[in-house]
Amino acid sequence: MLFDPLEIGTLKLKSRIVMAPMATNYGLRSDRAVAYYTERALGAVSLVIAQATPVGVFQSESFVTGVTRLVNAIHAAGAKAAIQLFCGNAQISGEAVAPSAVDGMREITKEEIEDSIRRCAYAAAKAKEAGFDAVNLHGAHGYFVHQFFSPHTNRRTDEYGGSLDRRMRFALELVAATRAAVGVDYVIMYRHSAKEFFADGIKIEDTLEFAVALENAGVDVMDVSVGRGPGKRDYVSPRKNMPLGTYADLAAAVKGVVKKAKVVAVGRMNTGEISERVLQEGKADLIAVGRQLIADPYWPQKVRERREAEIVVCNACNKCMRCIDNGLPVTCEVNPLAGREWEVANGTLTAGDLAALRAKK
Ligand SMILES: Cc1cc2nc3c(=O)[nH]c(=O)nc-3n(C[C@H](O)[C@H](O)[C@H](O)COP(=O)(O)O)c2cc1C
Question: Hey, whose CA ends up nearest to atom 4 of ligand 1?
Fold first, then answer.
């Protein structure tokens, strides 16, 4: 099933393998970013979901026209392109805001909530204009949208906090506004943390109710992740002591409650065997691969051609994640050429590096 096509409305995917959104610190318009993502598209992934991108950048027309180069490059390399939108105004006039005044942040006002929703919907329309085939709304990992849903961070007493219905409200309004902005036939993905791994955090029962509500509000694809950012990174990107397909059962639970929405499983889906099994067992419709594609952009092609022995295996060391946490461009322990693909085009790689790159294909 891994190489079966899938149609999601107007989006036609050639296989079930998608590239998980991963911050790079290369930007989206640089030669480095374009070459990095193009390499993953050439490696035969069906959909590249470009990294979390603050919605504010879409206010700039030069960003919208500039990012089209990335979209065109991904399309020319044979994949579809989506972009993950970092929704919400986590910073307003340089001040950190959140649903509730926790960790030194100011509680966001209702007027600012409305503005956050408007800006996200606008960004989605601009992403569509730039040529992206879908948007992935970032509702996971402890960021702004997630903070509304999680009882751990949402202590509001108005219509945006308290009961489950009220904690869902921000995300549902966000989805509805995004749907209105992009039209009926455009694909909206929603990334959600199904579990937070602490006592007063998100529970799976809440997630299931939320998934149904998100689908009703206009979500086409539920992208099922876990955890929250700082302090809990190793849940989001599990280390190698965690089983392959770490979170497939959470995806399966979501798949059990949605009607038409497609479901993405993520988390150490690093072998063709585990990915195929998750699909065969009906636990998910799509497999998102993250770090394994940093380690080896040609992973999908090698799996398809049964060239497993040639795969450069991700060792889940999370060096890539540490780069992001320290504000550095992503590099990889097992693939020294990750993020250096553009140097091939520039001819600035040494002959040795170039030979290593070619050997991987
Ligand atoms: C370097 C790095 C950057 C990431 N950036 C994002 C991001 O921008 N948005 C997001 O939703 N998840 C992000 N993630 C999480 C991945 O999308 C993915 O869910 C996680 O790594 C588990 O998948 P994997 O085991 O295939 O790597 C990031 C992960 C890594 C390693």
Answer: 22
Average pLDDT, the chain: 94
336: amino acid identity, one letter = P
Cα–Cα distance for residue pair 198/359, rounded to 1 Å? 45
Q: How do residues 63-75 score in pLDDT, each as one tens digit? A: 999 999 999 999 9
From ligand 1's centre to the CA of 20, what distance in Å? 6
CA distance 98 to 89: 8
State which ligand 1 atom lies nearest to the alpha carbon of 266: 23
Give residue 119's Cα distance to chain centre: 19
Question: Cβ(191) to ligand 1 under 6 A?
Answer: yes
What is the predicted pLDDT for the residue at 360? 57
Determine contact, residues 33/345, Cβ cutoff 8 Å: no
pLDDT at 87: 87
CA distance 174 to 171: 5
Domain extent listing, the chain: 6-360
Which atom from ligand 1 is nearest to the alpha carbon of 288? 26
| pTM of the predicted structure, to 2 decimals | 0.96
In angstroms, the CA 25 to CA 331 distance is 10
pLDDT the model gives residue 345: 75
Distance 77 CA to ligand 1 centre (A): 22
Q: Which fold has domain 6-360?
A: TIM Barrel (3.20.20)
**Which of 17, 19, 22, 37, when mutated, tests ligand 1's pocket best, judged by the most ligand atoms within 8 Å of its CB?**
22
Cβ of residue 289 lying under 6 Å from some atom of ligand 1: yes
Rounded Cα distance between 126 and 104, Å, is 33
CB atoms within 10 A of CB 87: 29
Q: How far is the CA of 120 from the centre of ligand 1 (A)?
A: 21
Alpha-carbon distance of 318 to 338, in angstroms, equals 14
Q: C-alpha angle with apex 43: 41 to 46, nearest 5 degrees?
A: 50
By residue count, the chain amounts to 361
**Closest Cα to atom 7 of ligand 1:** 22
Task: Give helix 204-217 / helix 248-255 axis angle, nearest 10°.
Answer: 50
